[in-house]
Amino acid sequence: DTGVSQNPRHKITKRGQNVTFRCDPISEHNRLYWYRQTLGQGPEFLTYFQNEAQLEKSRLLSDRFSAERPKGSFSTLEIQRTEQGDSAMYLCASSSWSPWSEKLFFGSGTQLSVL
Amino acid sequence: TQLLEQSPQFLSIQEGENLTVYCNSSSVFSSLQWYRQEPGEGPVLLVTVVTGGEVKKLKRLTFQFGDARKDSSLHITAAQPGDTGLYLCAGAFNSGGSNYKLTFGKGTLLTVNP
After folding, report:
1. From the list A43, A97, A111, which residue is nearest B43 (CB)?
2. Nearest-5° angle of CA B109, CA B48, CA A28?
3. CA–CA min distance A107, chain B (Å)
4. What are A24-73's pLDDT values in tens digits?
5. Do A97 and B98 touch (CB under 8 A)?
6. N or C end of chain B: which has fewer CB within 10 A?
7. Is the pLDDT of residue B94 over 80?
8. What's the whole-number mean pLDDT along residues A3-13?
């Protein structure tokens, strides 16, 4: 297994367009997370799944954002009617939960630029 | 809202020097993690600390978790150019017995000059 895979690596779009990102987690991991990171900031939590169930969404995730994880495997993050403020690195991470702590494995991210 | 403060925000040193970066919070964490991130890549986990007062070593890196589990430090001995990167701390909270939703600090951007 080669780790968490995210596609595309880069996306340039015009304001108002819809975009969709894909994340393929490590196969045996049951948890999948989406984070957003802007320049000079640490990653900010957006949402997470346990298997196919979306268990929490951050207030950062407006109704223009939707995430899915059908069949508990890969996940997609869609942004509708993109705005310039959506420009950021979108990071996906997966983990295999344990009672004491989690080890998150991050993908390389999708860098979104909204013009 | 739990916040993590990291200091310094930027650090530029010469190869061979020692350095310490800090991570502080007003909240108690069930565990704390340190990550290293290179430009254009996702963060990579370095270590997880769980017990107050815990010290872990990873080659030239020493991680310490405060006794009250509200702060942590990362010390690098004899820094090398390959240590250059963004060092992020991230805290987890015990919510119903399940740790999730890591809260990240803004990071310390370390540059080690040859």
Report:
1. A43
2. 105
3. 6
4. 999 988 899 999 999 989 999 999 998 899 988 888 788 999 999 998 89
5. yes
6. N
7. no
8. 96
Locate A63 and state its tokens: 């109704």
The DSSP bridge pattern shows strands A110-114 and A10-13 to be: parallel
Identify the residue among A29, A45, A92 best suited for mutation to test binding to B, counting B beta carbons within 10 A and taking the highest.
A45
User: Residue B99 and residue A97: Cβ atoms within 8 Å?
Assistant: yes
Q: Identify which of A40, A97, A103 has the shortest CB distance to residue B45.
A: A103
Q: What is the distance between the terminal CA atoms of chain B, rounded to a whole angstrom? A: 40
State both tokens at B3.
């916040």
Evaluate whether B23 touches B69 at the Cβ level (below 8 Å): no
What pLDDT was estimated at residue A55? Answer: 87
Query: Chain-centre distance of CA A45, in angstroms?
Result: 9
Report residue A6 as tokens.
């995210």
The number of C-beta contacts closer than 8 angstroms across A and B is 64
Q: Which of A25, A79, A20, A80 is nearest to A52 (CA)?
A: A25
Average pLDDT of span B62-66: 96
- What pLDDT, on a 0 to 100 scale, did the predictor assign at position A102? 73
